[in-house]
Amino acid sequence: MTSAQTQQQTENFTNPGFSSVLGQQISTPHNCRHSQIHTQTGHIIKSGSAESLHMEVEGMEDEGPSSQSELPQSEDLHLVQQGSLHLESSAPVENVFVDKKAVDKLTEGLLSHYLPDLQNSKRALQELTQNQLILLDTLDQEVTKFRECNALLDLNSLFTEAKVYHNKLVNIRKEMIMLHEKTTKLKKRALKLQQLKQREALEKEQQREKELERERQLIAKPAKRT
Known about the structure:
By secondary structure, the protein is mostly helical. It has helices at residues 3-14, 18-26, 32-47, 50-63, 71-90, 100-151, 155-218. It is 83% helix and 0% strand. Helix 3 runs parallel beside helix 5 (71-90). The relative contact order is 0.05.
């Protein structure tokens, strides 16, 4: 394709009568693929969708193999893309009419399909969250208990002191038993000594009485007068 034809085709893209010119270019003796591109481009331009034209041209580019024999065709595709860019800036965007009932039905269908599973998932997540909160409270309580234990004295030292005091108590008990035995022996000895003293005192008293009786007998009695 010559530079004059390229410039002419570019002007045709910017011209409002691009559709009729494209129709005339379709009848020119090009290969079959080039004619298909112009036909689809004219159809897209008539519908007023510049973005669809760009997508169609890219789709046609992806379909063919990249070879040296199709270089003129790629130049035509490049020109079509440039023309679509001009049309995007000049062509007004059509307002798409959407049926509200259809939207509502589609919405209801989607909700009826996904909503039960979502609700089940929500309930499961709520239960899981509640269980996690309970577990966190339990862990906080356990941590508080451990902190209180750490705040107290060391348990090992307490057990060691308990053993020491237990041994001391055992020794004191032994000493008390020994003292009890000694006191018992002393009480028995004291009782024996008391009995012995009482016996000695009784013997002394009896001996004294005997001596007094003997003295009374030795005293001379006055003779009786006849």
